[in-house]
């Protein structure tokens, strides 16, 4: 098979052949070494042959083509000189020097194991050739393809699950008395299909099987974007080993994780949500259709805390002096791209006193909100689902913890800790059952490239959200909480339709935040109108300064969701560096949902949204799934000319500003709060033009916006003596740079605007919070 990327394009390949075989469960066993900046260990993959999801189309060109078998050059792995350590055989001889972990390693930069060192190919251009058939055509061996890059794969072997004590109960056929490939595969088939109420037993046997000995090494090879594995003589996916172990190590320059220091100067590492997702952390099936569960054991020095996407609030187990082990698990199948890990010297933040009552911390379930507790069978694959748990459906505030460097304790206690309960409660009042049973919130290092990131059971927040008043922290927290429903519990089947995640989260953050503040309906409406004004300006700026092809929310049009016969595909513009700065999926998605909510009325729309969540949680969707169900629930008199086709044409498949939005904004009258802000903006533009001298007050508040504005002026006027200030700002406040700069100020990367426009947009942003808190005078100074 071969996926050849055009050097002039920036698409991200998803090469895993999920059309032939699916990973059902991952067991990771890892050591984190800060000295060498390497994560090393093993991963055991449990498979189920065949794609249980119906193929959407075979119309797109097959991206994986067979090559001549003569070109197929597989190799046996070289001996592993740095063996992986399992919990059951942990050695007390391994060292610890405070910042390394139990396993000593050396920084791997040579790629001597034969893997391609593809960091220099950051553009994603690959000329490497995949060979051998990935299906079962003719006499070719079946080829397993996993998404993988920036990894040193050391060994691949079949796992002898038949050697696990007690596993024989899964061998249902009495004729299979001799250990064979057929017996081992039958055991795995039985294990991966256990009913949901036996999830504890299932996890236990997954763990036991992962510790079983190997029963034969497998041929493997790697290239820029994939790991290919085969077993000689095995021609069909159904006969391929259903449990394999891959021993590997990450590379310090791997793009899935970031090695850095926290705000206290202590080393840490975390997954950054990069364009390549987790393929540089472990070999996996990246396509979202590969919904799997996982469990992971991670060893690190005893001074470190390991946080991860997991249903359990893990506690460390001391293995020997100076080294601890952490174990997490997930029973809800999700794409491997949602897996997240962070290791650092975090401290759990707890409130010193009882939470204040200025924001609601508890809500009782009113009769008008009780309709979200539907009865019936869920539509997803079987797992222990909270939507079928009576106590979970009424749980407004799920258990939560906050972690951060000790130096941020005061800021967390003052701002973040008191916001989490009301924001969780507000989200429950709008959408119903929390999809996940618990939540960790981590304040990530200063070089984190955005304001926040949501993953199952854990949210990353930038330290920038802790500055100033509670508005930035509250709205960002609400945004990430909304992703529990849209983006995680309900995911996009085609990654190019990210508006299904970001558009919903942006729309819901306003609704959640208004409820968390307990605003009166008129206050909530005015605040949301003002925020709509801000987003309208940002969208106009985005459209003026971005390529048209990147402004389309459904770029694949009628081929959205289509994959090749093998399951491989490419993500349009997935590797474009500018995409990280783009807000169009947030903004156009937000305005589309706002348009639909106004057409239906809020009560009708959010009642439908709760019904939609109950119908599609635990599943992957396309735009038409949401739109078709929505239109079916709209009364005929409100539907007017709305149709899926019209919405595709006007909102999702065209660049620029949607015509319905242009008409709406042209006819919209500014709300009272927006008029007050506009008046203040005009006033301060006039004041700013006057030449005057002003003494600095000792009590003046200094905001991050001042630093940002200074950096703008330094760049604009090429004041080279102050370039160090710009460098420091970009290093210490990356959360503000890509997000705040792109959203709330004219982007430097696209050129500076006239002084008045810059001043006006900045004032708009600050005045929103100032007016809401009656602190306009203080802010203006």
TrEMBL record:
Example GO molecular function: aminopeptidase activity
Q: What Pfam families does the record point to? A: Peptidase_M1
SUPFAM superfamilies to which the protein is assigned, alphabetical: Leukotriene A4 hydrolase N-terminal domain (SSF63737), Metalloproteases ('zincins'), catalytic domain (SSF55486)
Domain Peptidase M1 membrane alanine aminopeptidase as annotated: residue spans: 434-651
Key words of the record: Aminopeptidase, Hydrolase, Protease
Q: Which PANTHER family match?
A: AMINOPEPTIDASE O
Name of the protein described by the UniProt record: Aminopeptidase O isoform X8
Identify the species of origin.
Equus przewalskii
């Amino acid at each position: 098979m071969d996926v050849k990327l055009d050097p002039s394009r920036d698409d991200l390949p998803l090469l895993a052949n999920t059309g032939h075989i699916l990973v059902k469960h991952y067991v990771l066993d890892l050591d984190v070494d800060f000295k060498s900046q390497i994560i090393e260990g093993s991963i055991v993959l449990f498979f189920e042959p065949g794609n249980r999801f119906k193929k959407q189309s075979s119309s797109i060109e097959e991206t994986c083509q067979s090559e001549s078998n003569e070109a197929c050059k597989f190799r046996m792995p070289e001996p592993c000189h740095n063996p992986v350590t399992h919990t059951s055989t942990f050695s007390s001889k391994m060292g610890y020097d405070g910042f390394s972990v139990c396993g000593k390693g050396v920084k791997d930069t040579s790629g001597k194991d034969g893997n391609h060192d593809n960091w220099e190919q950051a553009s994603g251009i690959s000329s490497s050739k995949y060979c051998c058939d990935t299906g079962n055509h003719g006499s070719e061996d079946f080829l397993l393809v996993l998404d993988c890059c920036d990894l040193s794969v050391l060994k691949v072997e079949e796992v002898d699950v038949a050697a696990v004590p007690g596993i024989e109960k899964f061998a249902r056929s009495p004729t299979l008395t001799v250990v064979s490939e057929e017996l081992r595969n039958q055991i795995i088939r039985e294990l991966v299909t256990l009913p949901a109420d036996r999830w504890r037993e299932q996890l236990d046997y997954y763990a036991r099987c992962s510790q079983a000995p190997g029963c034969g090494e497998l041929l493997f090879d790697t290239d820029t974007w994939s790991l290919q594995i085969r077993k000689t003589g095995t021609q069909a996916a159904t006969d391929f080993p259903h449990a394999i172990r891959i021993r590997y190590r990450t590379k310090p320059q791997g793009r899935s994780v970031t090695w850095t220091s926290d705000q206290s100067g202590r080393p840490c590492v975390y997954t950054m949500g990069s364009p390549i997702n987790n393929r540089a952390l472990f070999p996996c099936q990246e396509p979202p259709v590969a919904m799997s569960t996982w469990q992971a054991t991670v060893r690190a020095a005893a001074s470190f805390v390991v946080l991860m996407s997991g249903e359990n609030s893990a506690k460390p187990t001391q293995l020997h002096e100076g080294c601890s082990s952490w174990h997490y698990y997930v029973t809800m199948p999700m794409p491997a791209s949602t897996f997240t890990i962070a290791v650092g010297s975090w401290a759990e933040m707890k409130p010193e006193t009882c939470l204040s009552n200025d924001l609601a911390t508890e809500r009782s379930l009113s009769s008008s909100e009780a309709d979200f507790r539907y009865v019936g069978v869920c539509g997803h694959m079987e797992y222990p689902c909270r939507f079928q748990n009576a106590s979970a459906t009424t749980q407004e505030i799920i258990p939560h913890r906050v972690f951060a460097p000790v130096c941020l304790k005061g800021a967390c206690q003052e701002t973040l800790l008191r916001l989490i309960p009301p924001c969780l409660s507000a989200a429950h009042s709008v959408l119903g059952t929390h999809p996940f049973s618990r939540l960790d919130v981590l304040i990530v290092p200063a070089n984190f490239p955005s304001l926040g990131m949501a993953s199952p059971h854990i949210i990353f927040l930038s330290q920038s959200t802790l500055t100033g008043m509670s508005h930035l922290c509250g709205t960002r927290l609400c945004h990430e909480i909304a992703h529990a429903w849209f983006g995680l519990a309900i995911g996009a089947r085609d990654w190019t339709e990210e508006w299904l995640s970001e558009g919903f989260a942006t729309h819901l953050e306003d609704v959640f935040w208004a409820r968390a503040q307990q605003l009166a309906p008129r206050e909530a409406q005015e605040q949301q109108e003002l925020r709509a004004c801000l987003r309208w300006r940002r969208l106009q700026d985005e459209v003026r300064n971005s390529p048209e092809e990147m402004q389309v929310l459904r770029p694949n049009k009628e081929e959205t969701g289509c994959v090749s016969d093998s399951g491989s595909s490419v993500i349009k513009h997935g590797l474009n560096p500018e995409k990280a700065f783009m807000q169009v999926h947030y903004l156009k998605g937000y305005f589309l949902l706002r348009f639909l909510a106004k057409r239906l009325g809020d009560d009708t729309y959010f009642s439908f949204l709760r019904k939609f969540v109950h119908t599609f949680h635990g599943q992957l969707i396309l735009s038409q799934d949401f739109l078709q169900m929505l239109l079916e629930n709209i009364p005929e008199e409100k539907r007017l000319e709305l149709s899926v086709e019209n919405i595709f044409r006007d909102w999702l498949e065209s660049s620029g500003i949607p015509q319905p939005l242009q008409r709406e904004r042209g006819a919209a009258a500014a709300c009272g709060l927006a008029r007050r802000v506009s008046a203040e903006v005009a006033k301060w533009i006039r004041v700013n033009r006057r030449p005057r001298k002003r003494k600095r007050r000792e009590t003046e508040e200094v905001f991050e916006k001042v630093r940002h504005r200074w950096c703008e002026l330094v760049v604009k006027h090429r004041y080279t003596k102050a370039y160090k200030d710009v460098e420091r700002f970009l290093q210490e406040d990356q959360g503000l740079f890509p997000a705040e700069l792109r959203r709330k100020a004219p982007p430097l990367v696209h050129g500076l605007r006239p002084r008045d426009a810059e001043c006006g947009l900045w004032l708009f942003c600050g005045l929103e919070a100032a007016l809401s808190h009656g602190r306009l005078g203080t802010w203006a100074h």
